[in-house]
Write a structure and sequence with these properties.
Low-confidence stretches: none
Strand order of the largest sheet: 1-2-3-4
Number of helices: 6
Number of strands: 4
Helix content: 40-55%
Radius of gyration: 18 Å
Length: about 200
């Protein structure tokens, strides 16, 4: 039977993130797999982008992954085994207007992933990123709400706009992203290292 543990770490606070990893290691004995999946969004043109929102997005979407990795890597090195999976985005590969902080953070995640992959390759630790397109999550629901507010289109019309950005004309499901994470976490994924894997229906080619 699987055992789960909740930790209320604020992902903008490095000390709380360090305690999160330490608590996990004490509870489960080590950290075998680390999945960095915290993320927020704010949409605004650069000159009007609130400074506090920029700082918050960079802290949560980028810096928190550095802090979790920094704390977990020594544990993985000691075992000579580990899997680090960073959830990036298609916006780690291409840009969209009005999402400067999000795009910058997700590009940064890919750079962090590649650097760590090189540093850890000889220790049996792989580091990869998954780059989803628009996924059927609460973040996309809020995006649809922003589109309806700004354009006057219905929620159905706004959702269709997002779907049409994919050649498959659909949103990616969370389960599809999770399936890639499971592969990367498994022994079958040990030859995959330093990659940004698109799960976007062919949107970014």
């Amino acid at each position: 039977k699987a055992k789960a543990l909740y930790h209320p770490a604020d992902m903008t606070k490095p000390s709380e993130i360090a305690d999160l990893i330490e608590t996990a290691a004490k509870t489960f004995g080590t950290v075998d797999v680390l999945v960095n999946n915290a993320g927020i969004q704010h949409v605004e043109k650069i000159e009007d982008f609130p400074i506090e929102k920029w700082d918050q997005i960079i802290a949560i979407n980028l810096s928190s992954s550095f802090h979790t990795m920094r704390a977990a890597i020594p544990l993985m090195k000691a075992k000579k085994h580990g899997r680090i999976i960073n959830i990036a985005s298609a916006h780690g590969l291409v840009a969209s207007p009005f999402k400067s902080a999000y795009v910058a953070a997700k590009h940064g995640i890919l750079g962090l992933t590649k650097t760590a992959a090189l540093e850890l390759a000889e220790f049996g630790v792989t580091v990869n990123a998954i780059c989803p397109g628009y996924v059927d999550t609460d973040m996309v629901t809020r995006g649809v709400e922003r589109i309806t507010t700004r354009t006057g289109r219905t929620a159905e019309e706004a959702l269709e706009t997002l779907k049409k950005m994919s050649p498959q004309n659909r949103l990616v499901t969370p389960e599809e992203v999770a399936a890639v994470a499971l592969l990367l976490a498994s022994d079958a994924g040990r030859g995959i290292n330093g990659q940004g894997i698109n799960v976007d229906g062919g949107t970014v080619l």
